[in-house]
Amino acid sequence: MLRLGVDVGGTDTDAVLLDTVQGIVAAVKRPTTPDVTRGIHLAIEGVLAHLHSVTDDVQAVSIAPKHFVNALVERDPIRLDRVAIIRLCGPFTHGTPPFVAFPLHLRSFLEGPSFLLSGGLQIDGSEISPVDLSQVESACTEIAKRNIRAVVVSSVFAPIDFTIKQEEHAASLVCNALKDVDVVCSKDVAHIGLLERENAAILNASLLRYMKKTVSGFQHAARNMRLNCPRVHYQQRRDASEWL
Asked: Which segments of the chain belong to CATH 3.40.50?
């Protein structure tokens, strides 16, 4: 069985064709292009040139876009979006506002407006207070004024919120109020600690638009190369908090 691996870096895009029995069949390096798609296409084209049989023999493809990490390291405003935070916390956690644990060099690029609103859960799963529709709508109005394209919704003890689903409710309100905005619920990204979970969600949200562009570019290149693989893997750590 043949496997194709693509690694999109900030400078180069690498592609490797691997035979699971015989080992590496071919490996190429091509420059990463601004539109991403072209660089991926050239890299895939380069390794498939060494394939003497049909592309249907490629049974699995993996893409590992390390340039997401590079975008954070390089503080690239083209690849990163500012992020607005809607934290559902009621009267609690105001002493530790969003972005408080971020390095200043990242904070200056990523920090958007923060809103500490009604909501959140107690440790026993009961509500601190319900989500306030008017507060969320007011926050959305401010987010729209600032032209923010990424929003994180975080809630105190959200990972144990299986029934009330405050984050999901608030995220739905944001999606209805703001079009073409990426919304990330913190409970979908990490675990119980509020700041760690919120920080990981911020990093994911800041990169989400560029992630979508990269995945779309990969899919476009694969279609052009007539790669109809039964398995496609996008390899990226789910919790990006260790990048801080």
From this structure: 78-208
Q: Which CATH class is domain 2-73?
A: alpha beta
Q: Is the CATH number of domain 78-208 3.40.50?
A: yes
Q: What ranges in 49-157 are assigned the alpha helix state H?
A: 67-74, 104-110, 133-145
In angstroms, the CA 39 to CA 206 distance is 23
Q: How far apart are CA 167 and CA 159, in angstroms?
A: 10
pLDDT digits (tens, 9 = 90+) for 181-216: 999 999 999 988 999 999 999 999 999 998 888 778
Is the distance from CB of 135 to CB of 124 less than 8 angstroms? Answer: no
Q: Name the residue with tokens 């809607």.
A: 86
Please give the distance of CA 166 from its chain centroid, rounded to a whole number. Answer: 21
pTM for the full predicted model: 0.82
User: Is pLDDT at 242 greater than 50 in this prediction?
Assistant: no
| Rounded Cα–Cα distance for residues 144 and 213 (Å) | 22
Q: Exposed, middle or buried: residue 92 (CB in 10 Å: 0-12, 13-18, 19+)?
A: middle
Q: In what order do the strands lie in the sheet with 111-117?
A: 111-117, 83-88, 150-155, 182-185
The 10 Å Cβ neighbour count of residue 99 is 19
